[in-house]
Amino acid sequence: MLIDFHTHAFPDKIAQRAVSKLSYDSGGLEPQTQGTITSLKQEMDRDGVDMAVVLSIATNPTQQKNVNHFAMEVNRDDRLFAFGSVHPDAPDALEELERIHAAGLKGIKLHPEYQGFYADDEKMKPIYRKISELGLITLFHAGDDYGFLPPYHGMPEHLLGALRWLDTPVVAAHWGGLGQPQKVLETLCGRDIWFDLSFGYSTLPKEYAQRIVDRHTPDRLLFASDMPWHRPEWELRLLNTLDISDSDRQKIYCRNAQSLLGL
Ligand SMILES: [Zn+2]
Q1: pTM surpassing 0.85?
Q2: Nearest 5 degrees, angle CA 58-CA 60-CA 64?
Q3: How many domains are there within the chain?
């Protein structure tokens, strides 16, 4: 069993446009799906992925209802778990979190760059408190982002700050912080935080990957790709070069995700 904890897809009508724009903004990353749910599932089948978490981001306050409407539709699929999204500046962010929870979504994605906030900013406290009260998982984009210049707003130290107010599981994407393995080792490893292992292949030196696996508990690592930007098969290639016991591998590939998602 293989569960991919970090994928993206878009409504059919806008998928092509969304993927082209994101590809352009990232400097030309080649999309590995067509951006639709159908295409995502085809590529999951090709790479042996059984289930996936599908992440969306409300990039402005007026968009969040539509984004969550799509997530709720996607979440009906037996193989997919869609996370919702709220924009920190939306006046109805707290009510929207209640709607997300009532619809049965297991978590939300927050993106400090696209949504313009520092992960440890005091203004996030009411949102984090509401998330904790509802028992939702929070998945943060973490570290660098190819579409933005520094300073970055979701660095390991910012995520550490956010943990003060979040009592429910927190997942830091991209091995705890894209492009920031040294800070991840110093700041987040050993803390009560999950890392999704997406986008590591060809961006994270193998030696750092091994150190993060060794220093962070295997109970807090989640297999992930970041489709359409990376393929699950690529991430497996990186993981296959690492020294990890078979039982820890099972935790990383599916067990940890199963317990987080309540399967
Ligand atoms: Zn992503």
Answers
A1: yes
A2: 45
A3: 1
